[in-house]
Structures are given as structure tokens and as C-alpha cells.
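MOLECULE: protein
FOLLOWS: sequence and fold
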Amino acid sequence: MLFKLSLSNIRKSLRDYAIYFFTLIIGVSVFYVFNAIGGQAAMMEVSKNRGDIIELLTSLLSGVSVFVAGVLGLLIIYASRFLMKRRNKEFALYMMLGMGKGKISAILLMETIIIGIGSLGVGLIVGIGLSQLMSALVANLFEADMTAYKFSVSGEAIVKTILYFAVMYLVVMIFNSAVITKMKLIDLIQSGKRSEHIKLKNPWLCVLIFFIAAVALGYAYYQVGWNYSQLSGKKMTLYIAMGVFATFLIFWSVSGMLLRIVMSMKNVYFRSLNAFTFRQISSKVGTMVFSMTVICLMLFVTICTLAASFSVRNSMNANLQELCPADFEISYLEYADEEQETPIYRDIKGLYQECGHDLNSELSDYVHFHSYKDSSFTFAAFLGDEFDAVEKEFPQLLYHQPFQIFRISDYNSLMQLYGKESLSINDNEYILLCDFKSAKALMDKVLRKGYEVNICGHTLISRYDECQNGFIDITSQHINTGIFIVPDAAVDESYANTDYIIGNYRGDTKEDKADIEKKMQTYSQTVMEYASKTSGIEHEYLLNTRADIAEATVGLGAMVTFLGLYIGLVFLIACGAILALKELSENVDSIGRYEMLRKIGAEESDISKSLFRQTGIFFLLPFMLAVVHSVFGMRFALQFLETFGTEKLTESITATSIIILLIYGGYFLITYYCSKGIIKERK
């Protein structure tokens, strides 16, 4: 009988359970999708290195799943509180009919089991479907061969999902039983009755608090967005705490100001049901200031996490095509002392020949050149009169590090290999190359002053009044903080420094180049061992290949993308669900108020508009402040993202907006239509 009663209750309360089901299904499907990535990747053909990256990614996602499970578990408990509150009158009726608390607990236990099995089943089905789409993303990120791929179901991910959610439901059952044990009949009967009086806060105090909070936020924004060079760990913690507290004060003050402001606008306040609408909104915000603060901050983290992760992934892929136009790069530098202060130039090509390796047989085309360094031409020397001001603003920079210098002929030969434009300069000129944005802005200020510089005993002036975009080393990041291109006659071999060979492998097919890549790695090991025996006290040897750079780029891009998506989606689900459940709970308590509106002649269309505005403003308030936070938060994040590139930031923000619109907007619509059903019950 109790089982039939449980089924009947669920059927009658499907509308009330809509948000609960929606949240559980999304939670289960997201949990499954991200924990099934390892199984999907196993169906694809990837290189050994990328297989290792996928294994590491799977381990990271498993670790993050513990945190995700905790967030979803708290969310499920919060949702259960709403459902329990929604059924207070039902429980009171059971108790008046003589049903004991044990049987009521048994009914809830059965309902939880039924709902759990149903949501797990539907969520897993949705997750399995979505995971096939995720396979395309995995294949795209890891450039995997999907010819052997087929529809797959991850048994391990299913077991993990069932296990984690079973523990969550068990906690919910214990929570429900504890609530039932403490229930009193009189409290259940009177649960829907509460005072209609809204205590208005002092408007001048609210205005003062709002102003203080806005100033504090503005100060914190400035420090992290524009004065970031002076940030330390303690200062950063202080500004974060300031931002959190200011957010709390803004919601506290808005809950008191909103109604007062609207009340002062008589034409607006007394139009239609606006008086009722804004009193409801003020009451809701005023009773959950802390929750609004948490939701706002979670939305802020969600927006920044999703936008940053998409930007890193998109930019790094684009950078790989732009900044890695050759198959390999070899560099070698030898020293005569342990302090690495006296470099000795050594021909890397000759070093390979000494080891019995002929590079000409493996390479189709290459450029052999070396850099120069003047120990007296440092960053501090370049800054000239600007040094004191710059050092005060950026004390952490390496001011006594000499610049790398290259001859114009060597640079143009390399650009011909890269397929990029060459440069030209006069005998008394130099060109400064830089693609790291923060460094470029600093260098441009100095170049506009028109200072002369002394490089290797020659006085030169800049050909341009700003840095030119360019690089020497193959990479996937914009990390060139300053390279000087000078006339050939401006340097002699006494300043010779690092020797370079940059070029492409022979072979027309991917397989041919992969074979040569293996040979080059073998040669590299031999040369390193030989150099250790025959070189000076210290030496620096590096073999950098496009294949290795691509592997590292793919690995970092994949980890950032998946972790950002995972955490961002869960936070977004949590925010939408908490707001939805709070709104539904408030509407349950306000059923009598809507009945009164109908009795005094309010039109149903006006009531629906009022409900829509309440729900919309309730969802928009934390979201709007989160967007403001995100604008300045992303400005701070750009200081780190510029290394990877931010050219694709607009696309990333667009993708983030679509995800938020679908999930957060979905919660808004479901909440509105469920609320309409709730307030119509006694019509």
C-alpha cells in the first residue's frame, strides 16, 4: 500500500518535481559524460604521448568528480528541502489520519528510491547520447583517427555514476528521515501562514551602504585590472575578500533600496500589479542575501572559467599554425665557467658531424645561424631615462638580462623558411621584435622617445616607433619579450652566442616525417651525451620539434577545456537550481496572496506578467552583477591568457553565452511555468 501511495504521490506531484528531475538528469548526464572520456578515447587511434595525456586527463577528471559530487550532493539536499516544504499540508493530513512518522519516512524513502532510479536511468541514457557527441570533441582535440570508433558505453563511468549518486541519495534519505522525526503537527498545519508585513530598511542607510560597496568594488577592480603589477599574494587575497564582502553589501542594500525607489515613482508603483510585484521581489531578495551573494560569485567563476578555457584552447590551436611554421629547432650554447657568464660559440652542425650524423640527408631545407649578445646591452640600458619609473612600477622584471641580437640577413633567411615577410633596415637602425602584449606596450613607450642605443659598440636608432610582430623560436605561445634585429655590420663574431638550426624534414607524407622525427630524437640523445663529455663546464642543448609542441599544446588545451567545462557546467546547474527552488518555495508560501489578487479582481494575464517579472528579476539580479565581476575578472585573467593568445576571445565569450542561455535560461523558463502551475492550484 505504501508503495502504491508513493507512486500516486509522484504522479500527482510531477509538476513540483520538474526542477528536481531536470537538475538530477543534467547532473547525472554531465557526471557520466566527463567520466566516460577515457573509455571513448580508448576507441580511437592516438599517439603514445597523446595516450598518456588522455590518461592524465582521465585521472584529473576523476579527482574533480569528487568535488563535483559534493556540489551536486548539497544541491540535491537543498532541493529536498523545497519538496518537503511543498508537502507540509500533506504530511499534516497523514498525521491527523493516524499515520506514524515511521510510515511517512517509509513513503519518502520509496519516493526517493523511485525518483533516484528514474533520474539515474534517464540521466544515463541522455549522458550516453551526449558522450557520443563528446567523442567528436575528443577526436578534434587529440587529432585522433576515428575510423575504428563505434558507439560505446563506458561501464566504468556507469558504475562510478551509480555509486556516487547512490551515496547522495542515501544522504538525502537520512536527511528526510531526520526532518520527519522532528516534525510537529501544529507546525505543519500553520506552515503556510506568515506575516504579510515587510519591514522596510532605512533608505539612507541602504544608499550609504550601496555607495561604500560600489567604491570598494571599484577599488578592487582597479587594483586587479590595472595595477596588477603591484599585486602580491596577500594583496590578492585582500581584494578578493573585499569583492566578496562588497557583493554581499550590494545585495543587502538593493533589497532595501529597490522597493523604496519604485515607491517613489508613483506612476510606476501604482501601475497594474507593480506594487505587489516589487514588494514580492524585495521580500525574496531580502531573505536570501547570502544565497544571492554565493550564486553571484558562482556565476562569476562559471563565466570566467568557461570563457578562459575556450579562449586558451582556441588560441593555442591558432597559435600552433602561426608560431610553429617549421618541423624542428636545434639550439646549442656552451660556457667556459660554472656561473654561465662566459659563453663559447660552438657550431651545432659541426657537433652533429663529429657524432657521425649528417643532417643534410634528413632535412629538406633549413637555416643555420646564431644569435649575438652584448653583456652591456640589457633591459635597463635600453630603458635609459625611463628605468627608474619602470622599475618602480614593475619591480619583478629582469632588468640586467642582456637582449638576444640577430643579424638582418639571418632573420630574413629564417622568414623565407617560415613563409613570412622579410625586413629591411639602414646601417644605423635596428628593429625591435616583440609579440608579448604587456612587454610590447612597455617597449613602445620607450621607442616613441626616440632614444639611441649602443649595441656591440655601434650607436643605432629604431626604424619604427613601435615594436614589430615577430619571433625566432618555434612555439605555440606569444612569449617573445624582445629581440633586436640589427645590420650585419653592427655585430662581429666576438659577440656570437647561441647557435641555431631551424628547418623541415624530408618526406612528403606524415609517416615519412614521423620516421625522421624518431631519427632526430635518437641523434639528439647521442649529441647530448657527446656534448657532456667534450664541452666546457656548462652547456645548453635543446631539440624542439613541431610534433612535441603540438603534443604539449593538445594536452594543455584539452585539460583546460574539459576541466573548465566540467566545473563551469556544474556551477551553472547549481546556480540555476538554487534560484529555481527558492522561487518555487516562495510561490508555495504566496499562494494565498495570489488568491487574494483574484478575489479583488486582478486579471489572470496581469498575474502572469507579475510572476514573469518577479522570476526574471530574481534570476537577473545575481547574473547582472556576475557579468560586471566577469568583465573585470577577465581583464585580470588576460594578463595570463596573453601568453597563449586572446585572438579567439570573442568566439569563446559567444560559446559561453550560448551555454549560459541554454542552462540558466532553461531553469528560468521551467521555474516560471512551474510557478504558474503552483499559484493556479486554488483558483
Notes: The longest helix spans residues 546-589. DSSP finds 23 helices and ten strands in the chain. The radius of gyration is 33 Å. The longest strand covers residues 363-372.
